[in-house]
């Protein structure tokens, strides 16, 4: 599994195409982003990322992200 740190520049695919941004934090417990529930855990972490273009935040599994 790939690991990322706060501030790492990453890219991911969205329905609008590739998005770039940065890692805000690693989520290891259930949390919410806006009204979306993120089912993260220590065994199944997700990364909260922020888009460079819009500033919107989302959570993604490590395998959905790649370093840029």
Which helices and strands occur, and which strands form pairs?
Layout: E1 9-14, E2 17-27, E3 31-33, E4 36-38, E5 46-51, E6 57-60, E7 66-67
Antiparallel strand pairs: 1-2, 1-7, 2-5, 3-4, 5-6
Care to describe what's here?
The chain has 68 residues and is mostly beta strands. It is 0% helix and 51% strand. It is built from no helices and seven strands. The protein has strands at residues 9-14, 17-27, 31-33, 36-38, 46-51, 57-60, 66-67. It has a five-stranded antiparallel beta sheet with strand order 6-5-2-1-7, with no helix packed on it. A hairpin with a 2-residue loop joins strand 3 and strand 4 (36-38). It is globular. The protein starts with 8 loop residues before the first strand and ends with a strand.
Number of strands: 7
Unreliable runs: none
How much strand?
over 45%
Radius of gyration: 11 Å
Class by helix and strand content? mainly beta
| H/E series | EEEEEEE
Q: Largest sheet at a glance?
A: 5 strands, antiparallel
Mean pLDDT: 95
Share of helix, binned: under 10%
Q: Which oligomerization state do the chains in this entry correspond to?
A: single chain
Total helical segments: 0
Question: Cα distance, first to last residue?
Answer: 17 Å
> Which overall shape is indicated by the principal axes computed on the Cα atoms?
globular
Q: How would you write the strand order of the largest sheet? A: 6-5-2-1-7
């Amino acid at each position: 599994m790939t690991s990322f740190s706060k501030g790492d520049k990453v890219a991911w695919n969205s329905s609008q195409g590739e998005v770039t941004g940065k890692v805000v934090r690693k989520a290891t417990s259930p949390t919410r982003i806006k009204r979306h529930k993120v089912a993260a855990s220590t065994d199944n972490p997700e990364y909260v990322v922020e888009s460079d273009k819009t500033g919107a935040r989302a959570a993604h599994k490590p395998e959905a992200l790649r370093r840029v």
